[in-house]
Amino acid sequence: MVESKELLLETCLLAGKIMMENGSEVYRVEDTMNRIAANAGEADSISYVTATGIFMGLRSSHYAQVENVHDRVINLEKIVAVNRLSREYAAKSLSLIELHHALKAVNSTTPSFSFPLQVLSAGVVSSTLMIIFGGGWIDFLPTFLIGSIGFMIAIWVKKRIDIRFLDMFCASLVIGSLSILAVHFQVAVNVDNLIIGAVMPLVPGVAITNSFRDILAGHLISGMARGTEAIFTAAAIGVGIATIFTLVGGIS
Amino acid sequence: MTILIHIAFSFVSTVAFGVLTNIPKRALIATGAAGMIGWLIYWGLQQQGYGIGSANFLAAFAVGCVSIFFSRRKKIPMIIFNIPSLVPLVPGGPAYKAVREFALGDNFVGLENLMIVVITAGAIAGGFMMTNVVEKSIMHWQMKRLFNK
After folding, report:
1. Nearest CB to A216 within list B20, B21, B125
2. For chain B, what is the domain count?
3. Mean pLDDT within A200-224
4. Which domain holds residue B130?
5. What does the domain layout of chain A look like in residue ranges?
6. How far is Cα of residue A179 from the mean position of the Cα atoms in its chain?
């Protein structure tokens, strides 16, 4: 009996951790965790979810367990996967132990788009948004290229060096210098448009908005945590670009 | 011509951001449509002289409503549609610009951009809150109908 309760808590925490790491809203995580517990026969469970850590306990026993949330990225396919598994568990087509194994496998079994396609998409996001924000057609292709390269640098640095915000800083250094070079050699016209387009796949616009949504929903700690992270990401990008501007501002 | 470009590019950019946030393949087209609707409302209202607050609020509300429709139809969580489709609206650009101006010493322009960030994010979050109200009332109405049968 005790073991099954431990397994239940572990399963709930695992589901919550996956959802929180991949950009879900707090209320959805709490809802999913409580629902799994309810389907396992523990109608009265209590969960406390923040952007950096998850706590869960059952009122019928004295246990509570904790899980740490290290990284926050946006990978929506994993949220869909957890959602689907929790529904399957509710429909009794999975047992608790099967659910636990399936959740453990989510990180490796979830399909993702290939890396070249992601780089291409980053370029598309950069160039198309640059145009609808009022840029000129002559800057379209340069923005596409610089946006793709910036995104590649960010991924590359993040894989190799485990320092937070460094990926954004390096990417924005590259984006800034490439943009200034492009204008200097007259392949493009407007440095500001080039940069605003190229940083689009990196900037934390969604994170800022989500933090406001958390706060409005009453999840103050999560909102503040996500907001702080977003501010620092924006700061890394802004300081990176400003560094380049200060260093070579006279050339362009 | 301009409006065609806005329609096409807001759709394409949303789909591409959907790829970056790794949404399921079957949701790509629907997400693109949601993003397009959101951007067209925002852009149209801006052309009419509305401020960024109200334009973002209404655009986010529309995105939310479209997301409710798609999420019920395709049986995947709403968040899959409404995160990527916000990409043309969210204040990522102004956030970076604000920091850049602070770093370059132009505090006035920096603060101006910071205000844009706060207003935009607040308006979008408010718009989604209104969507929640709509969702709750739909659920309430469905429940009522179920019990009355």
Report:
1. B125
2. 1
3. 90
4. 2-148
5. 2-109, 115-248
6. 26
